[in-house]
Specification:
mainly alpha, A middle domain of Talin 1
Length: 264
């Protein structure tokens, strides 16, 4: 919703910066902070496969970003990648034996009455576009007031805001000793950010890719994704030292984009 609203308002820096910045924040901040409290396990079934999918989605988006403004055909390519990812995930799930699957009777904190559930869904459908509009308007106003480009605001403030659900989920999972859930949450979120959010947005409106994102932020996003590779493929948990390093790198990234944004 945020990216679509920004695209319709001709604020492509926010639309694309939101996704790129969110993917960076998901790995460096969302995995870094919880790992300061409890190690994040990278050994769960399917994590390697999902990590490869995230790297492929990242590489695909970077390649498309350098072919000019993102248009309908770019969106179609990204959504095709999403369809393949979902199909592959569904195929893998079907191959699992029933004994390997957990049976969940209910989700903690969510009422089971149908009318209440439908009311929550309706409230969400009404609230999302409203909140997205407020977010884009506020981000644009902040950019004007402090003299920073909309792209920097999208990469930082908006991206952090849209990554807060992942941060909350990952932190709770880590504190409950289920760090693997947090890692899977981040990897899946990054795949969907690139293939779904930008795919749908590009179908609705053309998205010029800001030069600063092409020259710097795309490569930070790729480097952040690659940081997970040794942990996932060597099956090493992300501990406190790595968590502190991830968090420190994210703070450094914010300093760099704000300094560059202020001097531009």
């Amino acid at each position: 919703m945020v990216s679509v609203r920004a695209a319709l308002d001709n604020a492509s820096g926010i639309a694309i910066g939101n996704v790129v910045g969110s993917n960076i924040a998901n790995i460096l901040l969302v995995l870094g902070v919880p790992s300061l409290f409890a190690a994040s396990d990278c050994c769960a079934e399917g994590t390697k496969r999902a990590t490869v999918a995230m790297l492929l989605a990242t590489a695909l988006f970077i390649a498309l970003a350098f072919t000019g403004p993102l248009t309908i055909w770019h969106g179609a390519v990204l959504l095709t990648g999403l369809a393949l990812f979902i199909a592959q995930s569904a195929h893998t799930a079907r191959r699992q034996s029933q004994s390997e699957l957990e049976t969940v009777d209910g989700v903690e904190g969510v009422p089971q009455k149908l009318w209440v559930t439908l009311a929550f869904i309706l409230a969400g459908l009404i609230g999302l576009p409203l909140a997205a509009g407020w977010t884009v308007d506020a981000a644009t106003a902040i950019a004007r007031v402090i003299g920073i480009s909309e792209t920097v605001i999208g990469l930082s403030i908006v991206a952090i805001g849209t990554s807060l659900p992942e941060l909350a989920t990952t932190l709770v999972a880590a504190l409950r000793g289920q760090g693997a859930v947090g890692v899977g949450n981040v990897i899946g979120s990054n795949v969907f950010n690139l293939l779904s959010i930008l795919g749908i947005t590009a179908l609705i409106a053309d998205l010029p890719v800001p030069a600063e994102i092409l020259n710097f932020d795309l490569w930070v996003m790729l480097a952040s994704a690659l940081l997970l590779v040794p942990f996932v493929f060597l099956m090493k948990p992300i501990g406190k030292v790595a968590g502190a390093a991830f968090t420190g790198l994210y703070v450094l990234y914010l300093v760099i984009i704000f300094v560059n944004g202020a001097s531009a």
